[in-house]
Design brief:
alpha+beta; 4-stranded antiparallel beta sheet
Length: 96
């Protein structure tokens, strides 16, 4: 299923900047960055729970936030892209 992960991490302190890097790194390990703090991740239910747990443990819930949007398995009909940064299929292999 496609999970959209978004986050907002307070970076006013050195600890916040460190948390931001850690959150971004976890997201990069499981998905593709589509905007600065937005990742598209194709995950099964078990892996989603693991990723969600990792991210929740990283943030400071007093100053940071995470949002998870589950677009399901038929996500190709639910995602529309307009503008810069060409769209790509996150379920296909990425060839660099």
């Amino acid at each position: 299923m496609l999970i959209l992960i978004t986050y907002d991490v307070n970076t006013e302190t050195p600890e916040g900047k460190r948390r931001l890097r850690q959150v971004a790194k976890v997201c990069q390990n499981y998905g593709q960055r589509v905007q600065n703090s937005v990742f598209e991740c194709v995950l099964d239910a078990a892996l989603f729970r693991i990723v969600k747990d990792k991210l929740i443990k990283l943030i400071n819930s007093e100053t940071d936030s995470l949002r998870f949007y589950s677009l399901g398995n038929n996500y190709k009909n639910k995602v529309e892209h307009v503008g810069a940064k060409p769209s790509f299929d996150v379920s296909e292999p990425l060839i660099v």
